[in-house]
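#lab-general

N.A. 3:47 PM
ok so I finally got the sequence cleaned up, no stray characters, all 163 residues accounted for. can someone with queue access submit it? mine expired

B.Y. 3:52 PM
send it over

N.A. 3:53 PM
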Amino acid sequence: MPSFDVVSEVDRMEVKNAVDQSLRELSSRFDFKGLTTSIEIDAKTGSILLSVDDGAQMKALREIVIGKLAKRNIDLRNIEQKDPDISPLGHSRQELVIKQGLDGDKAKEINKAIKALNLKVQASLQDRQIRVTGGKRDDLQKVIAALRAGDYGVALAFKNFRD
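B.Y. 4:20 PM
back already:
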């Protein structure tokens, strides 16, 4: 039976490259001279941690990183920006959480959308991805087209298309 997987993934190597490019740009920007800034990737969660001495510069730092992520073709719907933590001394920290995989609510929403198409396909949640199987290849292609047309708040990719 033909099948494919619906996934929502971000390439960690591209995130690392975007952070490296951001650090390179920070070293040459005059408005960050004399400030202690850092951009780090948390090894466990894969999130990006931004910190700067001057809280007013946090917006500029965040825009640099988000711009570099966008240039590396990372879908920004998978980046969740937490509120910045500003200390009384003016130091500011912010976390950019990178969402990997489909969480329960999004998976249910996508599953419901697939069932609403009334095609002869079955969708099942497997390890933060949705496996769609059907009897006809055309039905699976209709499901892919419908999912691409909809907006689910995360970037969707389609992998492992098998006949």
